[in-house]
Amino acid sequence: MGMTMTQKILAAHAGLESVTAGQLIRAKLDLVLGNDITTPVAINEFTKNGFSEVFDKDKIAIVLDHFVPNKDIKAAQQSKQCREFACRHCVSHFYDVGKMGIEHALLPEQGVVTAGDCVIGADSHTCTYGALGAFSTGVGSTDMAAGMATGTAWFKVPAAIRFELTGKLPPICSGKDVILTIIGMIGVDGALYKSMEFTGDGVACLSMDDRLCICNMAIEAGAKNGIFPVDDVTRRYMEGRCERPPREFTADPDAAYEKTIEIDLSQIVPTVACPHLPENTHPASELGGIKIDQVVIGSCTNGRMEDMETAYRILKGKKIADGVRCIIIPATMQIYRECVQRGYVTAFIDAGAVVSTPTCGPCLGGYMGILAAGERCVATTNRNFVGRMGHVDSEVYLASPATAAASALTGYITAPKED
Amino acid sequence: MNTQGHVFKYGDNVDTDVIIPARYLNTADANELAKHCMEDIDTSFVGRVKPGDIMVAGWNFGCGSSREHAPLVIKTCGTGCVIAKSFARIFYRNAINIGLPILECQAAAEEIQPGDAVSVNFDTGVITDITTGKTYQAEPFPDFIQNIIQAGGLLASLKEG
After folding, report:
1. What residue spans define the domains of chain A?
2. pTM to 2 decimals?
3. For A98-117, how does the pLDDT look when each residue is reduced to its tens digit (9 = 90+)?
4. Tens digits of per-residue pLDDT, A33-46?
5. Where are the alpha helices (DSSP H) in A202-258?
6. Is A224 an interface residue toward B (CB < 8 Å)?
């Protein structure tokens, strides 16, 4: 029996010829990641259990992104703890204010992750790097501590669902509409414990930003990881960027998949996930009567350059609707700088939006756009659980940057139109 | 190893944002965090939970964020065990790694009612609803995971190994 792409990467990192679904293995890690929320817990566990050295200072990434620039004293204490740990252990990939970005936009951009890697991160959206053809999955802080100490992690080898992508995505749609459509089809536990392997002719039309967005939300279907094959789009993206040489793995022709789901990309429409689960999806065009108070464009899901380009295309020369707060958050300093240089920031401000430096802030209800009771937000973020962005009686509608920007202009959930 | 207590029952897809809202995650202090356990779906939980009590839920318990604070606050509140139809994978890992007992058992999760007195034997996986007299058999853990639990968590097991 052949192996899936994920299984091949895991076998290679476990030093095994082959692995099968359900097998428990210990794999070597190419990177262990944490942020300002999860790393303090990991540091406490690391220290409490008597570990004094990290396995490899170049294979640990600590990114302060959730509550920075620090929102309050407690958050500042947590960042300080991360900073001191990173300094003590000479962690080479430590990203503080000024060079930080939202971790899952930052690490691919900076070439810290590459094809064929085996990565764990104490953040559920670590599954993002599957877009590069890496095995990458979210874990908790104790796993992060164990990873920092030993350079290894235990895994149950996942079975896989294959998503056979065909056709070409309409220009008004993006990766967000694809992954929301898929989650709507299979549900929030539709891929529980499994890999989501994306294949097919349709892959070629998806940009790196689309793929990063799609893999980012694999966790929202319960998946262990999402993964794309390595093709010319990936190779061009990685060239001159990645620290480690990429390793290309391909699924065996006779790999076992629990099922194959065909997705015709040409049939995708702008899609919105209504409260309070990402599976509660509807075409944006059917939700026209829903009035909104806030729009957030950003996050590890949709704060990349293409997302900013889309927002610019729709917002330039227009005005945000009265009564709507529009918050735009480029995900990394490089993207932020590019937005300044290209005049996007001026256009956003002229439209009546605010532009923040990178932060996860509003996505998880931390700060920088908290909702009051009864308020509604269209957000390009990844979760719309009860109370996710603020008051328990507030509502989050998940959408693409195009839908979010179009909605900001009307004050109602609005399907974006072709130019 | 056993636990016995009364049942708090919740539905499907209980996410880590309601178990411990992110607005409180500016601290890693478990006792401080535990004051807010479940508050976005059950404001009375923290006031009513007693040591050994049992949380029973539906599918995909603990979905969402990787925050280990979620199983940690459930444990710190004194909850003896979580029984669900299924667990989200990161929550499942985290619970094992920090030593919060969890059991997958569809029938028990379906039939046990809020407030029932329930006992759980972790060695055998037998769940007994004392109120109704019914017993259920949970899925046993693989040996590998049993070893982590018996060592007292992942890091302790690494030191032993």
Report:
1. 5-264, 271-410
2. 0.97
3. 999 999 999 999 999 999 99
4. 999 999 999 999 99
5. 208-216, 232-238
6. yes
